[in-house]
Amino acid sequence: MDIRNLKAFIFILITVIGTPGNLYIVLKFVLIRLVEKKLLQTNVILLVVALAKLLIIFSRVIPQSLHAIGLEDLMNDGHCKFFGYTYRVSRAMSICTTSLLSCHQCILIAPSTKIWVYLKQKVTHNISVIILLILLMNLILYRTSFVYANAKKNFTSPFTLHLVYCDTDFETYVSYIANGIVFASRDFLFVAAMALASFYIVLVLLRHARTLKDIRSSDKFQTKSIEHKASRAVILLVLCYVIFLGLDNAMWIYTLTLSNVKTDMNDARIVLACAYSALSPIVIIVTNPKLQYRSIFRFWKKSHIQQTSLTGLNLKHVSR
Q1: 273: closest CA among 79, 134, 88?
Q2: Domain 3-307 class, CATH top level
């Protein structure tokens, strides 16, 4: 298998696995919100994470797949600016909201001291506002994509990133390095927050395990089990992200030492950046009770019973 066929296989595999998984998570949480009129704050964050990863697949993985199977020159300057901007904002939202998820879970399981109670009240009750502020920050931060992204042309600047159908051209070495440092620093900041929050979660769970070791109360065991399951799911997601994003950013820093980055190098980075979009839905679905098959059946049964009850009440009202 040559390198082009291998790239086509990898990108198509990411698309085939990632699209239905993320779409299922988005639609299921939207359905729960419509029917039950509420959605847990953790699930709101997971909904945004899944939506961001869907946009990553749409804006970067699918174009990579089309290019890998031999379709050339599909985008003009306008398309490159739109898809480049969408990808960068979606990638940033995926990083930031995954970090928010780990920090939120950290706050939830923290002991009820004064500062943690304050954070529980302020953060957990304003998740939607925080997400909107993060989105606004990334929309503003990545507006430079409209300046530097263009369709491929015969002549490029010495500082160019080749991204299949598009080139990202920087006029000077200073702008090239500054762009890389700003966005790599942002990524490392949020990854560091993920890692610290996950480390604290592990410490809290170990402390709880020692404290509750001799307790036989079923309620406390149930609480412990819920904490363990939710926290393990968050830690697993963060671990996957740190691995893939860490390798992606390591390669990104390496490309800053090069004056003209080859397409294969960028393709490898994109595989690492997008692999999480395919793997994380599996982790989320397996570890989230609301998304599992039994939950779907109970959800349908509950909705059916409620609809039947309402119909019965309406018939009684009519008969009277």
Answers
A1: 88
A2: mainly alpha
- pTM, to two decimals: 0.81
pLDDT at residue number 208: 67
* The length of the chain, given as a count of residues: 320
Amino acid at 36: E
| Cβ pair 158, 260 in contact under 8 A | yes
Q: Coil, strand or helix: which one is 163?
A: strand
For 67-92, the pLDDT digits (tens) are 888 787 788 888 888 888 898 899 89
Q: Rounded distance, CA 93 to CA 196, Å? A: 19
What are the DSSP calls for 223-287, one per residue? HHHHHHHHHHHHHHHHHHHHHHHHHHHHHHHHHTT-SEE-HHHHHHHHHHHHHHHHHHHHHHHHH
Q: What is the pLDDT of residues 259-318, one digit of tens each?
A: 666 667 777 777 887 888 888 888 888 888 888 755 545 545 555 455 544 444 444 444
> Hey, where are the domains in the chain?
3-307
Give the pLDDT score at 79. 85
Residue 132 vs residues 193, 208, 294, 308, 314: alpha-carbon distances, Å: 19, 34, 33, 38, 41
